[in-house]
Amino acid sequence: MARIEEVGSETPVTLPDSSSPPSSFMFLLRIMSKRRTWACIFVLVYGILLVCSWNFLKSMLSWYNIEAKTSSSGWPAVYASVLLGVVFGGLSMAAALAVMVPAILVTWIAVVVLLAFFGKPRKALVAEGGKITKEIFSFVMRVLLKEGNVVAALCAVLGYFALIGRNSE
Fold first, then answer.
1. Cross-strand partners of 15
2. How far apart are the first and last CA of the chain?
3. Alpha-carbon distance values, 70 to 11, 51, 76, 160 (Å)
4. For 61-101, how does the pLDDT look when each residue is reduced to its tens digit (9 = 90+)?
5. What letter does residue 74 receive in the DSSP assignment?
6. Is 134 a domain residue?
7. Quick one: pLDDT at residue 1?
């Protein structure tokens, strides 16, 4: 008999030997069930996003420096600041979405469990769960878009004034 222990579980689950998963699968399951692993993946992804955005910022500034020398108008600063606002607004929405997905999932589970405790039949739970999922998703997307647009606008305005101030030096 093979033993599989879940994180936080008091009683181990035993499987017959004929249906025991391969050892590589068990190793992967054991690693992925740790919070540390998910925290490392989270930090790695955000580190990659930070490096990419830093490289984008440096390339945008070098493009702006070339354009600012050849043009006497303020249009290159407007173009660069709008592009910076769009990119960093999109990055902030992606970061917020990565944090919001687990929160949405926990909220949805809590609501469905509470409905089950109040004696709703299974078919009603499925129907209510679908309605709740649509409602939570639409609310979260509205908030996400509003917050992302605010960050994009703020980055664009700050970027414009930073580029104009840099150009006047």
1. 2
2. 75
3. 72, 29, 10, 18
4. 888 888 878 877 777 778 888 888 888 777 777 777 777 77
5. S
6. yes
7. 46
